[in-house]
Write the structure tokens for this entry.
Amino acid sequence: MINIFDIATIAPTDQSVYYLGKIFGKIGGILPNPNDGGPILLGLMFKVLNTAALSVGAMIVVYTTVAGLLSTASEGEFLGKKWSGTWVPIRTVLGIVGLFPSSGGYCAIQIIIMWLILQGVGLADTLWNTVLNLVEQGGSPYVTTTFPDLANTVQNDFKNLFTGLVCYETLAKNQDVANSPAPYLCRINPTDSRCGKEIPPFESGTPFDLGQECGGVLQVCDVSANGWCKNPKSINCVLCTAQHQALTEIIPAFDTIAKTFVQMDFDYQNFYYTSSSKTTPDKIPEWIKNFCTANKIENQCCVGIGEWQLKKNAEELEKITNASFMSSVYRNVRTGGAAPPPPANDPTTKCSFTFFDKDYFPNGPSTSGQSSVNINLSVLKDMYSPAILSYINNINFVTAAAEQYQAVLNGAYLTYLASLPPSATTAAWNREAKNNGWILAGMYYMQITQRSANLLPNKDNTPLLRFNSVPNPDTVQPGQKDIRAYRNNINVVSDLFKYIDDANNDNNSNGAAMSAISAITSSTWAMNSMLSQFMHDVSGTPGKLAENPLYKISLWGYNMMIVVQFIFALTLVLTTVFAAVTATNFLVVGTGMTSTPWYEGFKAAWGFTSPFLMLAMSALFSIGAVLGIYLPLIPYTIFLMGAVGWLMATIEAMVAGPIIALGILSPSGQHELLGKAEPAVMIIFNLILRPALMVFGMMASMLVAVVVVTMINQGFVKIAFNIIQAPGLVEGIFFMMAYTSLLVMALNKVFSLIHVIPEKVLTYIGGQAISYGESEGLQGMKQQMEGGASGISSGGKEAGAAPAGAVTKLAQDKAHEKSDDQNPGVQAKNRNRDTFKNPLGGGKK
């Protein structure tokens, strides 16, 4: 069979196809007969209906022909002005062909409709298999990420990599700043291999080497056939290839930021040392103008220092610099003696140079004590960092790169999982679910949701990524070039990261908010042990996402019903035994009482407490029944009703088939090709997509349930504590009932996605919402459950009164026996009565 969707494949023993075969029988070569045979009833009935429709179609053709000829003759235009001379003949042919009968009784358009429906079945089966494969390979439908800590693990290596790129781009800067005491390497040694060169390309099989001074070689997995890709289809090769793909994008992005940072440093030095020595300042970079504006520096004063100040600074800078080897650096700017006075025609003599002359001198020691060939921390913090943050849109680019790296590897792993063939060790239920197809997906919901294993790749599958920290240039290692006298900006990058991290921590408070919520809920969570234990066992810890909520809820409800039944049976036995013991009265001959004070006290206490005890047990049993039976049945019930609705919609579409053909055949109508059958398009489209959308809705509701239960936990525990800070047993039971009701309402809403998505998704493109009563079926089951729970509660109350009644009757009988034994007249009367009952003398002697 030809498939519309290339990825769609019908399951081998798809039950929806089997059910359709048992309803419609064989439909051409589209729907084969089931192995145990298919009915021919509908085929025979459709044969009659289609024959009648074909007769009506013939009359429409005659009408169209006659009316068209008359309109042509009267209006001088083919078929007249009212009908389309192009589309009416085409629709006439299509309509007649659509009504053409087949040997099974079905017409051509019905065969086409069934073919379209089976396309939707194939799409739904493929979607369902995707879910089952993830559960099989990943161990749980709640698998969040395949490498949960990878982004944090690689951040340090990414920081080292960026530091190395800044070092490389600084050393490779093929420019210099006049009068600067911090020369670039290429000014002194223009033959260095890095001068004016781009970073080496990151290519498979070629080491990415920035030089020993800048960190050396980036260590990654070997993507060759001799490395991780000995087997090209292995998980190792897939992940290694994904790593190289990610780094191919990340390294150029890092290098662009590094170049910007190095160019920014160059521009500021050039601004600082040269702009004020001219009557008209050089063109100032925009980011420096922004700094001047922010600090209220006038335009004519937004310049560097003059040469006369430079010499003075050179003298003072040497005093605060501990590195004696720096003296040679300043010789080119020092003239000896006192600094000369400023030029008379220098307009900047009227400006205050407090900002740029002292506070923002471009050179200075970093936090590690590095020499003044690097950026001054004040300049880095107040000038470079804000400009860089603006350039990268205020994001932490290292964190973003690490997350992108993790996402690429995650995507590769998920693609690998989806491409795996079925495993020979697949669980029996998983194979059964795949073979049965989408229509029985609801019955496997609980088996899916209780899977909690996390079969993620281990550390052996994680590709190697390591970049050594860039050596401190103040400490020259063996084989390392001495770059202490050149601008390298190595140590200040760590300070740049600090400022970027601080800026992002101020902007991002989601983690703090979650921690605050967790702290608040945790403080109130311990206020009442019974309520907290109930909520914890049902749906998890507040402040954290609930795990497998529906499975845990059902398990807790089932256990609650078992416990209540045990308590009820134990109460019944203990009550009966204790009542019998306390009602027994040992009498002395001729004296004594007919009942003991212990029994009278017990009877009064039991009569007072038994209604409350039975009420508590009935309430707990009802809660258990709702949690353990009703809630787990919600997804199955809604999905089942949706599947029944789909079968009904299929029958409806098949019956409407000849009517659709007549609508196409009609010469009138808005649509050129479909005529009056245009509304049928959206209805059939809904019928095609409905199975896949139901599967999608069920799995989406499973994930939404996790979020919703977490939301309930975070809010309920707080509001319960605000109402009663220390609830007792009765209050705790009522809170449990309220919590259960809230869960029922919320999960009913959540799992309505199973039918809401198929109903409403096509309304976004003009379709109508189509419902088949799924919510009504769920409401009916809920009413039955409530009725059953109510009956059990009533029975429990009556049963609770039974022990007291039995004890009372037992005590009364004993009292009568003792009274009769003490009265001779009564004894004689009893003997006469026994003799009358047994005249043969078999009575009591």
Notes: Residues 597-665 form the longest helix (69 residues).
